[in-house]
Design brief:
Elements lengths: L2 H15 L6 H8 L3 H13 L5 E3 L3 E3 L19 H11 L1 E8 L5 E14 L2 E8 L4 E6 L3 E10 L5 H5 L21 H25 L7 H27 L22 H12 L4 H21 L2 H5 L1 E4 L7 E5 H6 L4 H11 L26
Antiparallel strand pairs: 1-2, 3-4, 3-7, 4-5, 5-6, 8-9
Length: 372
């Protein structure tokens, strides 16, 4: 055990016993070090500001944490929004939010607060939205005000909220990503839940920009990209699982003959954007929904053996990745559902400078993880 881990373990032991003291000999035995090392570590922690006190003849102790005053309903409107949300999560309460979506529309929602999640792209409240009657994530910087109600949050099945917790997180190349649950029945149910959640996010994103509102152009470019690449990813996973020829779901647009040849990512993406430019936002959304509906229909009916096997991981460029379970290939990291959520989350990012000349801007897809 290195020194940092030893200090953490020492504090953990003191906190667990607080406010009762622990004898240095007991601490030394638990940490498998000498009493001298324990005393030296305690001195270091004390000098660093940890309120460790020596109890004569009994050892060392941390004071009991001060009782926290519960946040009142009026008080929830006075302090920082995050403090109100943290109290709602701690006390399992319903919180009423003034929330502004990416299109600039404000709504007032009652949310059962279940957790706060910090991701590279922002901090989120995770909960059950009573207006949408489903699990949702709310970016904290879009919450203008929060009111802590006196109503308790219902007990929710954890599996129903797992999809909402899947914030895209950058992972090292080749690193192990999240895995779906073991067992055919649970893996299938988890994947179908993830599919339905992603489909609901797509419906919500399209509804927010209906009528040409702010963000419509960016969403249109993203949906064109996602419809074609999700079509390919879903077909490739299905082919890897069954050994059959790929089945392309939805309504692929007509592409030039060169589209079937090997080419760099940028060239293929340009062809996709050109082919999709003739379609409306609604058409693109329906195409992608049809692709996901086809995936859900196949996943619901495929053999249990496929859910329990390790299957080749098809990649758009280069050789297949290490074998993974079917649930991970469809709904885990690097799968088509994570790809969709990656782009939906980045619709709130600031775009880079537009390209020079008359070249059409496609910044919303030019950082896609499929290039990796």
């Amino acid at each position: 055990m290195d020194r940092v881990d030893r200090l953490l373990a020492l504090v953990a032991e003191l906190r667990a016993a607080s406010p009762e003291p622990l004898d240095p000999a007991v601490l030394a035995a638990r940490l498998a070090v000498s009493e001298r090392t324990v005393r030296r570590d305690l001195e270091l922690l004390t000098h660093g500001g940890l309120p460790v006190r020596a109890v004569k003849g009994r050892g060392y102790a941390l004071p009991a944490p001060a009782a926290r005053e519960p946040l009142s309903e009026v008080g929830s409107l006075m302090g920082p929004v995050r403090d109100t949300l943290a109290e709602a999560v701690r006390a399992r309460r319903v919180v009423r939010l003034a929330y502004t979506d990416q299109a600039g529309a404000r709504s007032f929602r009652d949310v059962e607060a279940h957790g706060l999640v910090t991701a590279p792209y922002g901090e989120y409240l995770v909960g059950w939205c009573r207006m949408r009657d489903g699990p949702r994530m709310f970016r904290l910087d879009r919450i203008g005000a929060a009111f802590l109600s006196g109503r308790g949050a219902e007990v929710r099945d954890l599996d129903e909220l797992l999809a909402a917790l899947r914030v895209p997180v950058a992972r090292p190349a080749g690193g192990a990503g999240p895995r779906g649950p073991a067992g055919a029945a649970r893996a299938r149910a988890w994947t179908l839940d993830r599919l339905e959640f992603v489909r609901s996010r797509l419906r919500e994103a399209a509804a927010e920009v209906r009528g040409g509102g702010a963000g419509a152009a960016a969403l249109r470019g993203v949906l064109g990209h996602l419809a074609e690449w999700t079509r390919w990813q879903a077909a490739a996973v299905r082919s890897a699982a069954t050994g059959e020829e790929p089945v392309l779901e939805g309504r692929p647009p007509p592409f030039p003959a060169a589209f079937g040849r090997e080419m760099p990512y940028d060239a293929r993406e340009r062809m996709i954007q050109d082919a999709m430019a003739l379609r409306s936002l609604g058409d693109l959304a329906r195409d992608l929904q049809q692709v996901l509906e086809g995936v859900a229909h196949w996943a619901a009916g495929c053999d249990d053996a496929l859910w329990e096997a390790e299957l080749p991981d098809p990649r758009p460029y280069g050789p297949p990745g290490p074998p993974r379970p079917l649930a991970d290939l469809l709904a885990g990291w690097r799968g088509p559902l994570a790809h969709i959520e990656w782009h939906l989350d980045r619709l709130t990012d600031e775009p880079p400078l537009p390209p020079a000349g008359d070249e059409e801007e496609v910044w919303v897809v030019d950082r896609c993880p499929l290039q990796a």
